[in-house]
Amino acid sequence: MSAAVDTAAANAATADARDRRIPWALTAPALMLFVGVLVIPLAMTVMLSFHDWGQYKGIEPVFILKNWREIATDPYYAEMFWRTFRIALLTTLITALLGAPEAYILNRMSGRWKSFFLLVILGPLLISVVARTLGWALLFGGNNGLVNKLLMSLGLIGAPLPFMFTETGMVIALAHVMMPFMVLSVWTALQRLDPQIENAALSLGAGSFTIIRRIVLPQIMPGVLSGAIIVFSLSASAFATPAIIGGRRLKVAATLAYDEFLNTLDWPLGAAVAVLLLVALVLIVVGSNALIERRYAEVFR
Amino acid sequence: MRTNGPLALVFHTIFVVFMLAPIVVVCLVAFTPEGFLSLPTTSFSLRWFRKIADYPEFVHAFWVSLGLGALSSLVALLFAVPAALAIARYSFRGRDAVAALFLSPLMIPHVVLGIAFLRFFTAIGMGGSFSGLLIAHVVVVFPFALRLTLAAATGMDRSIEMAAISLGAGGWTLFRRVTLPLILPGVISGWALAFIQSFDDLTMTVFLATPGTETLPVRMFLYIQDNIDPLVTSVSASVIAITMTALILLDRFYGLDRVLAGKSDPGR
Q1: Per the domain annotation, does B12 fall within a domain?
Q2: What is the pTM of this model?
C-alpha cells in the first residue's frame, strides 16, 4: 500500500516537474484580468493626478504638480485628512474597547447561546451599509431623536446633543459598522487560547482581573491589533456613513474625492486625493503589520 | 471554563442593543401608518411597502443589483477556481506575488477603485455601460471567491484524486467528476459571499452607475441624499429581510464564522 502511494507521489512529482507551465496556465486568465482592469486603471489614476484641469478646458494631459501642490499648501486638505484619520482612530479605539470584551464574553457562553449571539453580532456585516447608516440617521434625527430622548430620560444629558452632521455621530455610526470586524478578529485569537491556562491561574489563586490582565489580554492582543488595522483602514476610506451622517459640509477623504469627481468634475484633483489616501493607508497598514509581527513573532509562529 | 458574571451580562446586553438598534429602528419605521418618519405606536401598516411599486427606479435598481451580483460572482468564480487550484497545489516561482495581487482589491479603498475604473472605462469608451460595471464588480468580488475556493482546495483529500487517476481519469473528467464535487461547498460559499459583496457595494459602484445601471444601494444612497422618508425605510427593511434570509441559509449550509473568516483580514 505504502509503496503504491510512494509511486503515485513520485509520479505526481515528475508530472509536476514536467508541467511547470500548468500553474501559469491556470492563473493566466485571472492574471490578465487583473493586469488589464486593475493595474492599468490604477496606473492611469496616478497619471491623472498629475494632469491639469480647468473649468472650461476640462482635463489636459500634461505632467504638472499643480494638484499635489494644492493639496500640500491649502490647509483645507490638511484639515480634511486630519479629520479623516482622527475619525478612523477614534472608531478603532471604540471598537477595540467594546469589541474585545464582547468577544471574550461571547467565547465564555455555552454552545447554543454562543452561536446565536455570534450570528446577531456578525450578521450586520452582511447587511447593506446604507440601511445600517440610515438606521443611525433615524436614531439621531434632529433634537428629538431616539438617542437624545433616551439619554435625557436617563438624566445623562440636560439638553439634546447634535449627532447628525457631527464627527461624534460619524464615529458612533462607523463604530457600529466596523464592530463585527473587531469582534471577529478577537474571536479568532480567542479560539487559539487554551482555557486550561486560565483554570491553572485560577487554581493558583489569581483573581478575575489578574487573569484577564496577565493571561488573556497578552494572548488576544495580536487579534485586537490586527482587528484594529482592519477597522482603521476601512474607516479611513469609508464613504457611505460619512456621506449620510456627515452631510455635505463635513468632508472626509472619500466623500471629498467623490465630490471632485461627480460634482466639481475636477478629476485630476480628486485622483490626487484618492492616490494620497491609498498611499497613506498602504504605508500605515504595512508598517503596523510589520511592527505587530515583530512584537508578537512567537504568537504567529 | 469560567462563566460570565452579572456585570459581563449587562455589558453584553447593552452591546447587543447597540448592534441591533439601528437595524430594528429601520424595520419598525418601515411599518408606520403615518405619512412621515415615525415609530408606529398604535398600528402597523404596509402602505410604504406598497408604495415601493410606485417607484420603478427602486424596483429596476433591485433587478440590476440582483443580476449584477449573480453574474459578477459567477464570472469571478470562472477565473478564481483555476487560480485557486494552481495556488493550492503547485509551488511555483512568484506564487506569493500572484496570490498577493489577487487579494489586493481587499486592501485598496473602494473609493480609489471606483475612481480608477471610472477613469479607465471612460478612457476606453465604456463609461456608464453595464459591462464596465460588471467587469469592475468581478475584480472587486474576486478575492472573496478565491479565498473560500482556496480554503476548500487546500483542505481537500488528494488521495481521492490519486485513486481516480489510477483508474484512468484525467483532465476535464477528473476535474468535473472528482475535484469540483469535492471543493463544491467552498465554491458555492465563495459565490454567496461574492454575491453579497457585489449586492452591497456602494462606494465603488456610485462612481460607475448611470441612471440606467443604478444598483439598489446607489439608488438608496442618492435618495437619502435628497430626503429621508418612510419609503426608503421600507426599501431598506426589504433588503434587510432578504439578507437575513440568505444569512440564515448560509449559516445552516456552511457555518457563518467560516464564511466571515474569508471576509475579514484585508491586510494579510
Answers
A1: no
A2: 0.89
Residue B1 lies in a domain: no
Residues of chain A scoring pLDDT < 70 = 1-19, 142-144, 298-301
Q: State the Cα–Cα distance between residues B237 and B228, nearest whole angstrom.
A: 14
The cell numbers describing B256, all together, are 457563518
Give the model's pLDDT for residue A77: 96
Of B86, B116, B217, the CB nearest to A130: B217
**Residue of A29, A130, A195 lying closest to B1 (CB–CB):** A195
Whether residue B152 is contained in a domain is answered as yes
- Maximum mean pLDDT: which of B80-84, B189-193, B262-266: B80-84
Mutate to test the interface with A, among B112, B157, B207, B268 (most CBs of A within 10 A): B112
pLDDT at B213: 93
Residue B8 lies in a domain: no
Residues B253, B256, B261, B263, Cα dihedral to 10°: 90
Q: DSSP 3-state assignment of B204?
A: coil
Whether B30 contacts B36, CB under 8 Å: no
CATH of the domain at B78: 1.10.3720.10
DSSP H or E stretch at residue A59:
strand A58-60
Q: Is B152 exposed, middle or buried (0-12, 13-18, 19+ CB in 10 A)?
A: buried
Contact call for B105 and A128, based on CB within 8 A: no
What's the confidence (pLDDT) of residue B146?
Answer: 95
Q: What is the ipTM of this complex?
A: 0.88
pLDDT, tens only, A91-135: 999 999 999 999 999 998 988 898 889 889 988 888 999 999 999
User: Among A174, A173, A193, which Cα is nearest to A104's?
Assistant: A193
Instruction: Using an 8 Å CB-CB cutoff, list chain A residues near B221.
Output: 130, 240, 243-244
pLDDT band at B260 (very low <50, low <70, confident <90, very high): low
Q: In one letter, which amino acid is A218? A: P
Q: Can you say how many angstroms the Cα of residue B15 is from the centroid of all Cα atoms in its chain?
A: 25
How close does chain A come to B23, measured CA to CA in Å?
6
Please report, for chain A, the start and end positions of each structural domain, with discontinuous segments joined by +.
4-48, 75-300
Query: What are the grid coordinates assigned to A208, written together?
Result: 478575575
Q: Is domain A75-300 annotated with CATH 3.30.930.10?
A: no
What is the pLDDT at residue B257? Answer: 64
Cell of A50: 498629475
- Per-residue model confidence (pLDDT) at position A1: 42
User: How far apart (Å, rounded) are the C-alpha atoms in residues B27 and B238?
Assistant: 8
User: Cell triple for residue B143?
Assistant: 478575492
* Nearest residue on chain A to B114, alpha-carbon basis: A258
